[in-house]
Amino acid sequence: MPDVVSAAANRITSPRERILLAARDLFHRQGIRRVGVEAIAEAAGTNKMTLYRHFDSKDNLIVAYLRGVASEADAAWREIERKNPGDGRAQLRSWLALAAECLASDERGCDLANAAVELTEDGHPARRLIEELKIEQRNRLAALCRSAGIAQSEILADTLTLLFDGARVSRQAAGSNGPSTKFIRTAEKVIEAFRAGGKRNGKKRTRAGAAESPAPARRVTR
């Protein structure tokens, strides 16, 4: 077990927080199915009895772990808004930069997506939570695209979500020199295309409206 995990856990006085910290690290690095409660308890500097006192089961610990992941994502969204108040385009650029940084620094990919792959049971308590959290993230991105002045913000949000999720999978499979390195350049091209498409459609509507406008009545003189 890495000393840094145990050292960080031991600096936290609350057993619950130590357990969550250890679970967060181990689940992220090794996967949910591979890590048992004994390993989590050991990394947290406690025991299974204490772990089960705070979490009724491993499944409940998994749910708490995923809520912690979502809380970190929420903090990142708030930071984007804090740094660029009222500027949708700047916020979208900040999101791209943060996504690219995530790709470069973390080869394990999305915790929510990884958990969804491992937790295949339909009735698992984490399945619904993962779906809700992924939809919430996508909707926040759509709102960000709208505030950046993108006409087809919903479609752009879906496109960027697929691009980012795909890049994270590519980072795991093809390594740090694979296609994921082109994420930000590709995303910028996609955003540019949507913005240009919105302008063209706006011009077409303007021309169509002018063509359909009735001609002014001609004055008849006698």
Question: Please, could you describe this protein's structure?
Answer:
This protein has 222 residues and is mainly alpha-helical. The chain has 2 domains: 1-55, Arc Repressor Mutant, subunit A (Orthogonal Bundle); 69-203, Tetracycline Repressor, domain 2. Helix content is 74%, strand content 0%.
Q: What distance separates the N and C termini?
A: 102 Å
Using the coordinates above, name the CATH class of the largest domain. Mainly Alpha
User: Would you identify the regions where 5 or more consecutive residues have pLDDT less than 50?
Assistant: none
CATH architecture of the largest domain: Orthogonal Bundle
Mean pLDDT reading:
88
Name the helix and strand elements from N-terminus to C-terminus, one letter apiece. Answer: HHHHHHHHHH
What class do helices, strands and sheet pairing give?
Answer: mainly alpha
Relative strand content:
under 5%
Kindly give the count of domains: 2
Backbone shape? elongated
CATH superfamily of the largest domain: Tetracycline Repressor, domain 2
Number of strands: 0
Instruction: Please state the CA-atom Rg, rounded to the nearest Å.
Output: 24 Å
The main β sheet shows up as:
none
In brief:
This protein is an all-alpha fold and 222 residues long.
Features:
222 residues; mainly alpha; Arc Repressor Mutant, subunit A; Tetracycline Repressor, domain 2; 2 domains; 10 helices
